[in-house]
């Protein structure tokens, strides 16, 4: 049984013996019950994720943070604690392709995954009706060649106004400017419609069709200022063959895009992703 | 980097707060460095696996066992420690189908996985030459309807004489008697050529073909006295379609059998499998 | 390039030399261009599917049928011709689980697959709003223990009134009575939430969890009067492990259910499924 | 039931109506029974593969060729007919990695696929003993930096002397010179240890590990004078995660390499691959 409410403690720090003992000892000293625990080390760096049953602790999130801080300082930890009772606020950006949006809205509606959608932003009006049917605000932001910079400033204002935790590019067909990427490191998730690093850039399915590959894929990654090169969170592929027209390839691709994005978003929302340089540790 | 030599500590015990702290604290108190750690809890039971860098400890396996025993007793642990420098001794039983045997012998030859094969036992002579080319002893044990009981006593004598740790039924087409199954709990591994619980019993591929399923599979499990019902270690499937003749189904099946058996054997040999009733916890 | 409009000719007949020549010769004699062709034979039975470019024929569907009939009679064919310009009418039955319904409605909305949904029938009211947002009629039919027979007569009346071609049980948690199953052979599609024949009957995910299998699956099949035993159209599986709670298993299952149902429905709608006894030939 | 012996007729020609009728009519006019038939068209080109039951024809392969030639000329066909009773002669080139060689030799030994291995060529001596245990000649050809050109001339002489039909590079760690590639178009098969076009060139697993991809793969392709760019026959992938060391990635890779190569070789040997520019049509 998963506890009803849990606090997730994530840590990245220089590796040395005794870290698990110190952290587990700290939790145990307060009677904390660990529901799930994961560890990893690579290149002299130590990664740790722990779900602590909130009901097992005699105090709340704020005091836990205060009490944990000295230990964190001692081990030079980059750390954070989140509370499963506080859903993350996910702002979705979309253009016209709606398969990923439909999937995310369904998961929100079905409570398949716990998160809030404070608003959806689009550079087109096509999806306004469907979004608003859910009772979710829809913001149209024009992205014409002339005023893209202003468009992206507007995106940022909306994101801030809605206190977004996470920006998801659910097939948003615009390249984010570097200053936006850098403002929210590891907080912007994109779904790229190819198995990166193959077929970066435009029209990847057409590239794949032309090359004659036997599998096509999708890649969910954090957005950095370098196009299609951010840390990869999740990938998957699907088999195609010679009988598939390019439209079939696109259709298969949509299936894999939406499931890869959904998994990537889940890992992020459940605080299962720790970034390590340009790679990720994903504690599934 | 994985340490050159490591000790693997596996624990099953009643769940209660503080176990991780106690065990990690014990290891840290001796300067031990944990290379890989996994935890799981279910139904009030706690499962733990830790790889400790042997070079980080000031003493060897025997003293580690002595020092750990009091803690183990306090927490009512079912536990064990193995040494990566001591390869497990795997006795292989086979009849005439040799695809799994070929795969295991290749892995042994290629040092793809570290284990010893003290001997191969078969109720047929077909594979003697190939086994002996490897410099591995081959024992022929007749299994005629009249003297099966004696045949299985002979199997047991050979297994004991070779100080076997593990018996692998690599498509051994004979049903082991209950007393043999019970003599080596969680030490006999079978590969069943279906996706259990579908198509238990004889000729599973023919059953699958007749039923018209779209995927066929294989199941690697520990052998218990109940036929095809032991704890499942690993399973996988492969897609078939109407154009596949039953011989094609058998052929696809062989591919999945050998890879599922190889993975199951690997998990066992690396002490990654903890049995929980009639299920398994596999720390991959 | 797939032709804009095509006629699909499906044939099942006793196997004998010359069938392909006869049928292809007939089509060629009228200048017909074959866009896609598939053949299969098994157990003395011959199966054939051909997509003919409608624009390449000098006449329409009705005359094609008339002209083809003598050849069909000569070869004792069970045959049919459909027109890609006439979408099939798919009536969806659903209870409370809406993941499959959401998926099918999205595909309809996105024109990902060409079909009509004349109405949705449910024994609950939960999904009325979402269905009606699409402009699709929603019929509530009570299924209380006392009046199930009447409920199913009502289902049948609605299906007939809407001139349904196909009935899809998108997680409809009621067992259809034999007379309904037999009224529409190979026209009722169900999604069963297990990898049949494993875990037929109720609560398959809980059964799978208890057994400790390492993969769970879903099965799309035609409904016959024998529960969960009709011809299988499509199946797939997804990997689980010991760390998955039964709720996780259910969640993974929903993903595979909806994709397996979507594929099965696609094959049926595109006339790619030919039933052969209790098995299917699926020309992908 | 697959016929005991069959003739496989493969055709590539400009697309126009009536080809299937003409070819099927020709076969039927001689009483030929078609066991398996596949068709494909793309970009104005028509592809066809037919397995004809040899026992159903009143004459043999040579007369079939003579009789078919006029039809082939009329339709401007690029065509060929092979006889299942004549196994292809596959010359294997290998360096030190033996997982693919072991797999191919097993399939040959087990008659899992019908082909001859007239010899194995290697630039190292490591695998001589294992090859010769099979009774297969082993040729050592040195490939030092100074005399590579001579080495490849020797490879070609050996291939010709053994009347090779097919050259398989089973992890042969040398780049073939253009003149060798061009001498045997669509007759040299390579297994590349990445999911092309990702990670072409050297050390692809290390590249993949550095990039942090979540799946790695292998690609079986025909060799052309452009490195790693020939027509792809088959690909597959396997999942990895952050806990996998680069050695684990290599190990997983070996599994997928050998199965992808085995499938690609099977398709080629069964005459299922038709090359279309730099892509392939694979009639599975």
Textual characterization of the structure:
- Four copies of one chain form a homotetramer.
- The first copy, chain A, is α/β, with parallel strands linked by helices and 284 residues long.
- Chain A has two domains: 6-83, ACT domain (Alpha-Beta Plaits, 2-Layer Sandwich); 88-282, 3-Layer(aba) Sandwich (Rossmann fold).
- The first copy, chain A, is 33% helix and 29% strand.
- Chain A has helices at residues 19-29, 61-74, 99-109, 128-133, 148-161, 178-183, 204-211, 246-269, and strands spanning 6-14, 34-42, 45-53, 78-83, 88-94, 115-116, 120-122, 138-140, 166-169, 188-192, 215-222, 232-239, 273-276, 279-282.
- In chain A, the strands form three sheets. In chain A, strands 5, 6, 7, 8, 9, 10, 11 and 12 form an eight-stranded mixed β-sheet that branches.
- In chain A, β9, α6 (178-183) and β10 (188-192) form a beta-alpha-beta unit.
- In chain A, α3 (99-109) runs parallel beside α8.
- The two termini of chain A are 17 Å apart.
- The interface between A and D is medium-sized, with 29 and 29 residues.
Explain briefly what this protein structure is.
Four copies of one chain form a homotetramer. Chain A is α/β, with parallel strands linked by helices.
Characteristic key phrases:
homotetramer; about 280 residues; alpha/beta; Rossmann fold; 8-stranded mixed β-sheet; 4-stranded antiparallel β-sheet; 8 helices; 14 strands
For the largest beta-sheet of chain A, the strand count, sense and barrel status come to: 8 strands, mixed
Percent helix of chain A, as a range, is: 25-40%
CATH class of the largest domain in chain A: Alpha Beta
Number of helices of chain A: 8
Order of helices and strands of chain A: EHEEHEEHEEHEHEHEHEEHEE
Shape designation of chain A = globular
Strand fraction of chain A equals 25-35%
Structural class of chain A: alpha/beta
Please give the domain count of chain A. Answer: 2
Largest interface: A-D, 29 and 29 residues
- The CATH architecture term of the largest domain in chain A is 3-Layer(aba) Sandwich
Quaternary form: homotetramer
The pLDDT mean of chain A sits at: 96
Report the end-to-end length of chain A measured between terminal Cα atoms.
Answer: 17 Å
């Amino acid at each position: 049984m998963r506890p009803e409410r849990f606090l997730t403690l994530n840590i990245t720090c220089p590796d040395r013996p005794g870290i698990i003992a110190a952290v587990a000892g700290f939790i145990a000293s307060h009677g904390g019950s660990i529901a799930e625990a994961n560890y990893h080390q690579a290149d002299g760096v130590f990664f740790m994720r722990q779900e602590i049953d909130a009901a097992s602790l005699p105090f709340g999130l704020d005091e836990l943070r205060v009490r944990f801080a000295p230990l964190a300082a001692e081990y030079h930890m980059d750390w954070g604690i989140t509370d499963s009772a506080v859903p993350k606020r996910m702002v979705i950006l979309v253009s016209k392709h709606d398969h990923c949006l439909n999937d995310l809205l369904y998961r929100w509606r079905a409570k398949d995954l716990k998160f809030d959608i404070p608003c959806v932003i689009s550079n087109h009006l096509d999806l306004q009706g469907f979004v608003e049917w859910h009772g979710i605000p829809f913001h149209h932001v024009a992205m014409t060649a002339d005023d893209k910079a202003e468009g992206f400033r507007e995106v940022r204002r909306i994101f801030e106004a809605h206190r977004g935790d996470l920006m998801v590019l659910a097939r948003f067909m615009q390249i984010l400017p570097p200053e936006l990427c850098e403002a929210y490191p590891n907080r912007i998730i994109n779904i790229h419609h190819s198995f990166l690093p193959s077929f970066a850039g435009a029209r990847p399915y057409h590239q794949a069709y032309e090359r004659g590959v036997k599998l096509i894929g999708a890649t969910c990654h954090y957005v950095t200022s370098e196009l299609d090169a951010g840390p990869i969170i999740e990938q998957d592929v699907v088999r195609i063959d010679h009988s598939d027209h390019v439209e079939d390839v696109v259709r298969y691709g949509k299936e894999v895009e939406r499931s890869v994005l959904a998994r990537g978003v889940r890992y992020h929302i459940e605080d299962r992703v720790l970034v390590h340089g340009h790679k990720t540790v994903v504690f599934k």
